[in-house]
């Protein structure tokens, strides 16, 4: 018996050992712990946490699953992930306007720009805010104590002040990150004019100091255009850590500087293992190389230590700009990367700048990047992103990314909507990149970081500049090693309209990647509103009729068989239809400007509640109509800044018209005392705060007395709170500096004029915008239309789809087409009225160019043939440089082969492709170089 027990015991022990070994073996072979195994994309789930913020800028994580978000106009908000509730906890007074020397006011890029919690927040409750001082022309780094949801104003400590100018746009920076030693890194923008050439800023003429980046990023004695590194102290001051670019006491330097030579450094991050600093950097707007130097590039940069990153003398991989004397409009030699010097009259720092000049880590233009083609083409705005290290997260963190991403830098671009995972080698040098979640879009990402739970959080600003956007949101990407949550998609056929309004909802596109959940998901639609209406619907498709005016939240919750759920949200406005805005361009082409002296237009607006411009219910002053010249490379933020003034005045004019239509003028005048005070006096007496707006709205509706004298103010109970607020907003605007961007009439003739100093390679933007009056207390909705005209000569570098292209930039610019059937494509061009297309081609014996004919196709490289040119095999030879009195561009056109195609008639916007054909050429042989492509009407 004892023998049997011992044998049984040994067998049991062996079995336990084998099971133990098996379990251990399974754990070690877990695929997500293997850095060589890439997880399936369906292991990641996008979860929307909140939507509809007012210009969110940066976020920081707090204990207890809370995220603190700052908004540009000063809002400080906390999202509680446990409840989904977003709370406005404070509004920081900030400046949000530029006023130039001529008194023109525009919306500014600045405001409340950055936030970060102290690494020891759980002990000291400190957060740091970076903002534009509401009075003084400076940016401020301040520390506050945050107690729960209370930002304690009396604990404010100002650590650092950056003197700035507020006359001209742009670039603020404002990103922050702490290292493991408690040092704080702060990105600071160049605070400099965007030159209309879209190149470097080198204007040393008296009075143009704001156009000279040598006075800031290239100046060792100025904090702008830098990344600063300081050590915040407990008493609210800071010290300088060792290892910055300039030791404390170095003449003509600021010791806070860690790196310099930046244009607009954006969101920084630190690799916790190497200590290397990473950030995105927004570059200038030039779309092509030219006499001033290289085209514009955005950059993603790495600093292994302190250093000079080149701006305004170098860009990308240290491509030099040419010396430029704007007083004489002459150009000199390129700047010397081996001997960078700052000889500007506006320089207060060292003449000799630090070397070596550090080239960009990753760089890319508007067009396709030859070095990094995966980045694509189109608008660009490098944001930044975090370096992932698995060891940074606790073992309990539920969504930590797999080992495949360990050490990779995840970068995002605001405009292009991708996230790339960048791999570095053992030295930290660039090795490769790949698209992360290529089926997903992350456009308008203004901040991105990993949260304590291991998920990747992406803060999205929204689609329109300088306004709250309903599509601004905070999303997070969760990695699921086990059961995967559903991926939820919600849509509706109608999202706004007069009551009753019936909306049909659909969850089409929702899926779950676990086999056991197929066909077993449950769908719940929850409808809520502040007006008390609520409803719950079930099913993939649902329908609901909204009878009561209000703003409704429609939330779709999809739950799988394991009980895991995910949501998607829609906002619906019942009781107010969205206005329809239309620009009648009188049949002219809506893509190209052909040099017309005048362009006729007519703007019409119709709105179900407000009426229309045709019947006079919508007044001309309530519609913003703007017309701008757009340089060949342009900054969309600056353009929006210009137009926002006209939009603001159009909205404010609704308030003025409400005043004019009321009995208010019997007691009040705009700028003189009557029975009651003038509106100007009211605006002077009360600061424009939310509290005062609410108080005055109440007085307008309910009446009051005793503030300005014995005469009582009449009540106006027939007014809605929304209309009363519009009236108060207009009154407050009277004592503010009024934007001087004038709105155009609803109908007229435009006189396109190319501004002095422009090369004419840009175009024009006509835009109409109307924000309706809402309906009672129902929110206002906006509509817009625009016509964007460009020069009819297209540069091939702007092509968005390519095959067989070889771009050389030295000693001159050559855009070579290589091999039979090579092609370039342009997106979304209006072909209305286009009769011919001429290509300006170079065919040089020096490169063995074979010549080509060109086939023009519609919508794809294999689409309908619109026309074909004759085959050209030679081009005129006019020498190496233009003769006196002939511009380089005109000389180039004179010395090009000019094959021309007559087009079949096509209307409307299409993609258009140019296929270069020569069946006798080998695949590696050059056919032609493309100089320009001209569209003719």
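Sequence proposed for the structure above (937 residues):
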């Amino acid at each position: 018996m004892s023998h049997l027990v011992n044998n049984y015991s040994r067998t049991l022990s062996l079995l336990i050992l084998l099971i133990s070994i098996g379990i251990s073996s399974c754990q070690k072979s877990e695929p997500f712990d293997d850095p060589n195994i890439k997880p399936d994309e369906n292991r990641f789930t996008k979860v929307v946490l909140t939507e509809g913020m007012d210009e969110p800028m940066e976020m920081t994580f707090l204990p207890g699953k809370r995220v603190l978000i700052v908004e540009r106009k000063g809002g400080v908000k906390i999202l509680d992930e446990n409840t989904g509730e977003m709370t406005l906890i404070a509004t920081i007074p900030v400046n949000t306007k530029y006023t130039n020397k001529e008194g023109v006011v525009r919306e500014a890029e600045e405001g409340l720009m950055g936030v970060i919690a102290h690494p020891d927040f759980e002990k000291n409750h400190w957060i740091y805010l970076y903002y534009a001082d509401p009075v003084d022309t400076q940016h401020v780094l301040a520390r506050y104590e945050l107690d729960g949801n209370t930002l304690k104003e009396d604990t404010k400590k100002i650590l650092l002040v950056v003197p700035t100018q507020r006359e001209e746009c742009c670039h603020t920076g404002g990103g922050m990150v702490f290292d493991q030693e408690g040092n704080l890194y702060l990105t600071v923008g160049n605070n400099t004019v965007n030159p209309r050439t879209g190149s470097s800023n080198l204007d040393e003429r008296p009075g143009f100091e704001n156009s000279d980046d040598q006075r800031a990023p290239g100046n060792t004695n100025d904090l702008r255009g830098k990344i600063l590194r300081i050590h915040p102290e407990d008493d609210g001051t800071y010290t300088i850590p060792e290892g910055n670019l300039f030791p404390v006491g170095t003449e003509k330097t600021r010791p806070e500087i860690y790196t310099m030579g930046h244009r607009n450094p954006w969101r920084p991050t630190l690799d916790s293992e190497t200590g290397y600093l990473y950030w995105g950097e927004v570059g200038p707007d030039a779309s092509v190389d030219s006499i001033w130097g290289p085209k514009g590039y955005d950059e993603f940069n790495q600093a292994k230590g302190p250093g000079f990153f080149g701006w305004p003398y170098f860009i990308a991989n240290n491509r030099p700009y040419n010396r430029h004397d704007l007083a004489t409009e002459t150009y000199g030699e390129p700047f010397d990367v081996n001997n960078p010097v700052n000889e500007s009259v506006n320089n207060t720092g060292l003449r000799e700048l630090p070397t070596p000049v550090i080239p960009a880590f990753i760089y890319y233009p508007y067009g396709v990047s030859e070095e990094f083609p995966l980045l694509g083409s189109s608008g660009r705005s490098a944001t930044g992103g975090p370096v992932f290290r698995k060891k940074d997260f606790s073992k309990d963190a539920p969504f930590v990314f797999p080992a495949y991403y360990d050490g990779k830098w995840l970068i995002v671009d605001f405009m292009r909507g991708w996230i790339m995972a960048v791999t570095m080698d053992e030295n930290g040098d660039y090795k490769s990149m790949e698209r992360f979640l290529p089926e997903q879009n992350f456009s308008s990402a203004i901040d991105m970081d990993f949260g304590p739970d291991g998920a990747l959080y992406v803060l999205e600003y929204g689609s329109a500049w300088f306004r709250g956007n309903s599509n601004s949101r905070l999303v997070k990407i969760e990695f699921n090693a086990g059961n995967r949550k559903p991926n939820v998609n919600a849509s509706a056929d109608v999202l706004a309209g007069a009551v009753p309004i019936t909306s049909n909802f659909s969850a089409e596109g929702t899926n779950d990647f676990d086999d056991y959940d197929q066909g077993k998901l449950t769908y719940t639609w929850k409808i809520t509103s502040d007006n008390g209406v609520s409803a719950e619907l079930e099913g993939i498709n649902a329908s609901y009729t909204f009878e009561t005016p209000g703003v409704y939240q429609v939330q779709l919750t999809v739950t799988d068989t394991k009980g895991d759920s995910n949501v998607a949200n829609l906002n619906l406005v019942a009781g107010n239809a969205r206005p329809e805005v239309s620009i009648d361009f009188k049949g002219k082409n809506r893509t190209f400007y052909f040099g017309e002296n005048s362009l006729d237009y007519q703007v019409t607006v119709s709105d179900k509640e407000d009426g229309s411009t045709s019947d006079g219910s919508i007044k001309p002053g309530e519609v913003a109509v703007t017309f701008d010249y757009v340089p060949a490379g342009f900054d969309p933020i600056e353009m929006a800044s210009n137009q926002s003034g006209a939009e603001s005045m159009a909205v404010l004019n609704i308030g003025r018209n409400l005043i004019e239509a009321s009995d208010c003028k019997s007691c009040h005048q705009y700028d003189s005392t009557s029975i009651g005070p003038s509106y100007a006096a009211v605006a002077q007496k009360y600061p424009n705060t939310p509290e005062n707006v609410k108080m005055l709205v109440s007085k307008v509706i309910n009446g009051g007395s005793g503030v300005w004298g014995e005469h009582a103010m009449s009540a106006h109970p027939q007014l809605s709170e929304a209309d009363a607020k519009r009236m108060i907003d207009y009154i407050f605007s009277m004592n503010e500096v009024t934007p001087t961007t004038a709105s155009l009439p609803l109908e007229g003739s435009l006189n396109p004029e190319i501004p002095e100093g422009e090369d004419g390679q840009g175009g024009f933007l006509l835009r109409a915008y109307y924000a309706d009056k809402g309906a009672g207390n129902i929110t206002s909705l906006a509509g817009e239309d625009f016509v964007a005209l460009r020069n009819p000569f297209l540069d091939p570098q702007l092509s968005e789809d390519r095959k067989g292209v070889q771009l050389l930039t030295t000693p001159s610019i050559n855009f070579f087409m290589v091999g039979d059937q090579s092609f370039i494509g342009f997106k979304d061009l209006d072909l209305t009225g286009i009769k011919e297309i001429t290509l300006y081609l170079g065919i040089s014996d020096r490169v063995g160019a074979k010549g080509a004919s060109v086939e023009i196709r519609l919508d794809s490289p294999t689409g309908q043939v619109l026309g074909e040119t004759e085959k050209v095999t030679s081009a005129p030879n006019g020498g190496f440089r233009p003769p006196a009195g002939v511009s380089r561009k005109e000389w180039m056109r004179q010395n090009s082969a000019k094959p021309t195609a007559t087009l079949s008639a096509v209307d409307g916007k299409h993609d258009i492709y140019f296929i270069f054909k020569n069946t006798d050429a080998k695949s590696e042989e050059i056919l032609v170089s493309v100089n320009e492509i001209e569209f003719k009407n």
